[in-house]
Write a structure and sequence with these properties.
Elements (H helix, E strand, L loop, with lengths): L3 E4 L5 H14 L11 H8 L6 E7 L2 E10 L8 E8 L8 H15 L4 E8 L3 H9 L3 E12 L3 E11 L1
Helix pairs in contact: 1-2
C-alpha cells in the first residue's frame, strides 16, 4: 500500500513526536540529543516556510514524517535539504521511499537546483542505498563524527543530488 503523504497538522504532533523521540533515543541514524524535550523536538522538526513538514499515513496511522526546505540561507538557498523518520513498526514497507520521492518532487517543483543531505550515518545502509537509487552521490564523509551505540564512532556522509 502506498502511503498518503500530506502536510503536518497540529493534531498530528503526538504521533510525529513519538516517532521523533523513538528515532532520537535509538541513537542510530540522527545526531539529535536523545534527551531533548517535546518542545525542543517540535521546534527542531516542524519547518517554517519556505520549508515544509509532512506525514506519511498508512491505514489511517502516521507511519513516518519528513521535513524539507532550503539547506542554507542566502547564497545557499537554491539547494534543498530533507530529513526522514519512519516509525520502527512501519520500516521496510515503502514509507521512507515515498517520503524521499515526495521531498525530491517538492524540491524540483519549488525550483531548487538540487538536494543535499548533510549528515547520513554511514552505517544506515538502508538509507544510503535508498538515496543512491534516487541518484544521490556521496560527495564526502566526515570520519568518526557520529557516536553509534553499537558500532562506535562512524562517519557521516554528505550526499547530493543535482537537478
Amino acid at each position: 500500500m502506498t502511503p498518503e503523504i500530506r502536510p503536518l497538522t497540529g493534531d498530528d504532533w503526538p504521533a510525529v513526536g513519538a516517532i521523533v523521540r523513538e528515532v532520537a533515543q535509538a541513537r542510530e541514524t540522527f545526531p539529535y540529543d536523545p534527551r531533548m524535550t517535546p518542545a525542543e523536538a517540535r521546534a527542531m522538526w516542524v519547518e517554517q516556510p519556505p520549508g515544509r513538514t509532512v506525514v506519511a499515513v498508512v491505514a489511517g496511522e502516521i507511519a513516518g514524517t519528513a521535513k524539507m526546505g532550503p539547506n542554507r540561507a542566502g547564497p545557499g538557498a537554491h539547494i534543498a535539504t530533507a530529513s526522514y523518520m519512519v516509525a520502527a513498526a512501519a520500516r521496510g514497507r515503502g514509507v521512507g521511499t515515498a517520503l524521499c520521492r515526495h521531498s525530491i518532487d517538492w524540491a524540483r517543483q519549488q525550483g531548487y537546483a538540487g538536494v543535499q543531505f548533510n549528515a547520513v550515518v554511514e552505517t544506515n545502509t538502508v538509507a544510503v542505498d535508498l538515496y543512491r537509487r534516487f541518484g544521490f552521490q556521496i560527495i564526502g564523509t566526515v570520519p568518526r563524527s557520529f557516536d553509534h551505540p553499537v558500532h562506535g564512532r562512524v562517519g557521516m556522509h554528505v550526499m547530493f543530488l543535482e537537478f
